[in-house]
Design goal:
CATH superfamily: Ribonuclease Z/Hydroxyacylglutathione hydrolase-like
CATH topology: Metallo-beta-lactamase, Chain A
Structural class: alpha/beta
Order of helices and strands: HEEEEHEHHEHEEEEEHEEHHH
Shape: elongated
Number of domains: 1
Keywords: Signal
Number of strands: 13
InterPro entries: Metallo-B-lactamas, RibonucZ/Hydroxyglut_hydro
Helix content: 25-40%
Radius of gyration: 21 Å
CATH class: Alpha Beta
Protein name: MBL fold metallo-hydrolase
CATH architecture: 4-Layer Sandwich
Length: 289
């Protein structure tokens, strides 16, 4: 019996340690922590009334975080806040939330989660423009800045720590993902400007890539604007996608990760959005033959 229990304990310890290679938790500032699951990040905030978490990411990631919070004797999850509707960020909510957890999402994200029967905990509370979650002295301001990535994508401003968290539509230290699937490039630019103009913060945490500062976001915004302008103006000059990918270099942003790997894809993403969303192929003033 003792041998069996020892083996069970050893297996359990090994399983938890094996997960640790994929998952990581680090303190960002004060009571704000970043949870990493592979290439994905979310945040959680500890308070004396409960733990506030953002995206569960996946069932496995959510289970790991629940075990971590229990192991560290942190209070159960009082609020779970969804960043938007995409399954690769908000799946697995039922693994992290209890029956006492309040789940919050923007109304557009919540609607899509219901319509698509996404496997996660359904939101209990939805909002349109902004909503503030308060727990002891901690406040998390959720705000919607218009279309940018997916449906109902919001920003989080966590005070008094001064931490800004945005998933997908702001990425610091790296190019946006490949050919911008699910992205609204115009909305990305306007939403990022809105965040910079509205909020004072010390630290930025993205849903992917690096932790950064206001200056990093400004550099990212400059890249988005340069990328969009180069593709738009090239299309107005009659260039094909292949010609744009050959001629647009944006070397001033070569410091960003995935510059060599994804620049041509980013160009394709903007090009396709100008065709699909802005109907450049129907413009009477352009020669599209």
């Amino acid at each position: 019996m003792k041998v069996t229990m020892f083996l069970f304990s050893l297996i359990s310890l090994f399983s938890f340690s094996a997960h640790a290679a994929e998952y990581a938790i680090e303190q960002v500032k004060d009571n704000v922590y970043r949870f990493t699951a592979g290439n994905y990040h979310s945040v959680f905030v500890t308070t004396e009334q409960g733990t506030i978490v953002t995206d569960p990411i996946s069932p496995d990631a959510a289970s790991y975080l629940r075990q971590y919070l229990s192991q560290k004797k942190l209070l159960p999850v009082s609020y779970m806040l969804y960043s938007h509707n995409h399954t690769d960020h908000v799946s697995g909510g039922e693994q992290l939330a209890s029956d006492k957890t309040v789940v919050i999402a923007h109304q557009q994200a919540a609607r899509d989660i219901v319509f698509t029967r996404l496997p996660t905990r359904q939101p209990d509370i939805t909002f349109n423009d902004e909503l503030t979650v308060t727990s002891c002295s901690t406040q998390v301001l959720l705000a919607y800045h218009g279309e940018n990535n997916g449906k109902g994508s919001v920003s989080y401003l966590i005070q008094p720590a001064g931490v800004l968290h945005v998933v997908d539509w702001i990425v610091v230290g790296r190019l946006p993902y490949k050919d911008l699937p699910g992205y609204d490039i115009q909305g990305m630019i306007s939403s990022t400007k809105a965040v910079l103009n509205r909020y004072d913060f010390e630290v930025f945490v993205g849903g992917h890539a690096d932790i950064g500062t206001r200056a990093d976001i400004e550099h990212y915004l400059a890249y988005l604007e340069a990328l969009y302008s180069a593709v738009r103006d090239g299309m107005l000059a009659g260039k094909t996608l292949a010609e744009l990918q050959q001629s647009i270099t944006l070397e001033q942003f070569s410091d960003l990760k995935m510059y060599n790997e994804w620049l041509a894809d980013n160009i394709k993403g903007v090009y396709q959005s100008l065709v699909d969303d802005s109907y450049f192929n129907f413009r009477a003033d352009l020669d599209t033959t």
